[in-house]
Structures are given as C-alpha cells and as structure tokens.
C-alpha cells in the first residue's frame, strides 16, 4: 500500500491526519495524493508477491499480459503464413509434397515445406502455441479474478478519509440536515437500482458488479473454444475424409475403423432443361447444359463382429437413403455429403490375343482395371501374363513408363504372351490407348483392343465433428462476456459523515459519463453538490496552464 511521506521523512499510512513521528498535520499532503488504483481494488496479485520457486516463475511468466499478447501475435503470424500456399491436405494425394511445393512455387515453396508450414495446423509447434495461449489465459485469469473476487466480496462500507480523497470523483458537502440528506440519498439510490449498504452512518451504493467479470467470462469462452480446436486432432473427435464409390460397389467408410460400409446402388445426374423458358437465358449465358442435381442412391451397412484378414466382412443393412447436395446421410455422429462425381470411369477393358499372320483370334481376356489378375489362361497352350500395369500411364523424366495415379484414366500394359511357338520366354507387347508396340523385336502374336466397360463414380465427404459443441459453447460464452463487459459498468458511490460534513466519492470501471449523470440526479434529489472529477480538472490544467489555451502557441 502507498504511504504519505511527511517533511520529517517518516512514511504514514493514508487516512491519518498527523505524522506518527513528528505530529505535523498531513491534510495538505493527503489532498494532493494521486488517485487510488482500483483495477484490482488495490489487492496484490500472486504474481506480484511470489517469485521464489520454479512454479512461481512459470506462473509469473504466463500471468503477464505482454506474454499473452506475444503468443497471440505469433499465432496470428503463423496462421497468416500458413495461408500463403495451400496446405498439404489440399494438394493431390498422389504427388510428393516436397516436389510439389518446389515445382509449383520454386524456392519459396521449398522453404515453406522445409519449415513445416505445409502442415501448419497439425504441427506440434502450432499446437504448442495454442496450448501456450490457453495456459496464459487460465493463469492470467486466475491471477486476477481471485483477488478481485475476494476484494469485492469483502469490501467495506465505511472507508477512511485517504481512500475517499484519492477517488477520481470526490467532494465535501455541508448540508443543513446531514442525517436527512443521507436518508434521501439512500432512498434515491435504491430507486436507481443501486444495491445500498449502510454502516455507522456511511453508505455504499453499488450497481452492475457483474460487469467486472465480463473479461474473465471472455477468457473462459476462449479457453473452451481453443479446447475444441485442439480436440480436433484427437482420434475419433473429428473426421473430414473423402470416399469414392463406384456404382454397384461397396466401400469401407473412412474414420469408422471399418465398422460401417457404404454401397452405391445407383448414381445419376440431372441437367436443367434447355427448352424450359425459365432457364433458357441463363443456360445460354453459361454456355451449355448445367447440372441441376446429382444424387447417390446409397445403402449403409454395419459390419458384424471382427473382420479377419482375407475374408469378406459380414454386413447388415442399417438404412438406405438418397444422398444429394445439402441432403446428407446421417448415422452415429457421422454424415455423408454428396461432394463430387465422375461419369464413365474406365472399369473393365477387353483385349484379344490374335495371330498376326492369319488374323485368327486366339481368345479374349477381360481385365478389371482396379484388380487385374496376374495371368489369364486361354487354353491350348496360350496364356497372357501382365508383366507391368500403369493405370494412368506417362513417361517419367528418365523416359521410362510410369503411372501418375492408381485411377485408370489412361491404362497401359506390358503383356507377356505365351504360345505353342513361344512356350518358355514368350513375347512382350506394350499396349495402351491407341498404342500397340512390340518390345523386343517383331512378335508373331499381338493384343488387340476389343472394348471397355465404364461405371459412374460418386465422391462422398465423410464428416464427424464432436468438437462442434465446444466451439459453439465457447463462442457463445465469449459473446456473453463481451456484451457483459462492454454495455454495463460497475458503479460505486460512497457517502460518509464526518460531523456536519458529508464526504462523497465515486468510481466506475468505464463509462464515467453515466456515473456523473447519477451524481447530477442525486444532487437534484438531495441537494448534495456534484463531486469534482479530478482527472477532467487535471486535463484542463494541462491544456491551459496559465488560464488560457496555448494550443496555438
């Protein structure tokens, strides 16, 4: 607590009129004392009183507002840098991330990848920043809210002279009937919805104390919100995956640990009718047919028991639904949304083995492009072996055949053809779309394209978000605290009798104009003068040090 220094050098506590050492009056010193710090009611925080153990030092570090702001700034900078280039989750899954960033963005992309910004929001150091921010919010709040709560709960009604004089608004009045004036003030302040307490002729009128807890409720909301963000990286709490399902096929749903499966019974696309007068002008501006809706008729299955490797799971139908855009299939905290599609994807390719000399067709093989067999027996000593398969064929940098992805958009094969004429080593042939080449010399036999089967494919987004309640609750609590701390102010008015005098003082944490209005209304009701605003008076003196405005020199 601050003290008053007497001319003799002795420090005296506020509220005393005479020096404890020499007995000289201290009134003049007390009147010119600085205003009391009311942020935490003058109570020392833990971070200001303990600094010995390692726990104290950690507590003091995270309780600092500067540290909290520093963590927020670092988090914002990191988040901003993370938006310069796309995150790894948004680049094609079949490419090497290191090569992708370097090829697409050059040296900047290489540095971006090396520093780990390509997977920013899942990196350990970004999670450490979020955790540090949460710890800072918790410790800073406890360091301040506990002493503030105790001080406000235990605040006295009757305050000493030093406390009252050091308030920003303070005045001394000599009414004709002090007792009646205090009663009138009590009745008026109660009517103004102040909570009035009385003790030994002194009054404390308090209003909107709950506004003081607004910032700390903000902190609680932020902590809950950050908790929800961190929980997204815990298994089972958050799923955002994509599953492609071909017509007539069944796939395991990602994120369900192969407990649930989805079957695509049928997929279709509907286009807007070009002959409809309602849509014709818009379709002409768009330059062609436009999709009206696309839909997957799906069946949801649940696996019974534990799956054994190499065996088909036993599936039980759970439900069927028509999945459309904005009409998901929901189950067990999951939702399947219609996201994308692909029409006429290559599925089965038919090729025949032919004798070049005679043109005779030896036999036909049907190759499942997603699960090709290693060997196809045509009988009579004829067979075809798939030596190499390239679902999405291209030549790499070394000029050798390779594949871009596992999707058969441009399938190509290297076949080894065995016949009675070539029973041991066979003949090699490279076959692709509009490509048919002999590998080692001229062959007696060749593989010819016969036909292809296609299927429509639907892309379903798998969503599960158990963190959403945390995010909603945290955001709502934050807004409540913001409104609570912004639109109300904690106002207090003290009245104390000293003989025939009534000392008045007032304080509010914000919106001083509202407190002054209450004092003006109190003055009209009781005759008490409006207390002087020391800060406004000081500002006026600084502006006009000689009684005039020197702003123009």
Description:
The model is unreliable at 27-32 (pLDDT under 50). A hairpin with a 2-residue loop joins strand 19 and strand 20 (435-438). It is built from 13 helices and 24 strands. The strands form 6 sheets. Strands 4-5-22-23-3-24 form a 6-stranded antiparallel beta sheet. Strands 6, 11, 12, 13 and 21 form a 5-stranded antiparallel beta sheet that branches. Strands 14-15-18-19-20 form a 5-stranded antiparallel beta sheet, with no helix packed on it. It has helices at residues 27-31, 46-49, 54-63, 65-81, 97-114, 124-153, 161-165, 178-191, 214-231, 280-286, 468-487, 512-526, 534-543, and strands at residues 3-5, 11-13, 169-173, 195-199, 202-207, 238-246, 250-252, 260-271, 291-303, 315-323, 329-331, 334-355, 361-368, 375-379, 382-390, 393-395, 401-403, 412-419, 422-432, 435-438, 445-465, 491-498, 501-508, 532-533. The chain starts with a strand and ends in a 10-residue tail after the last helix. It is elongated and about 130 Å long.
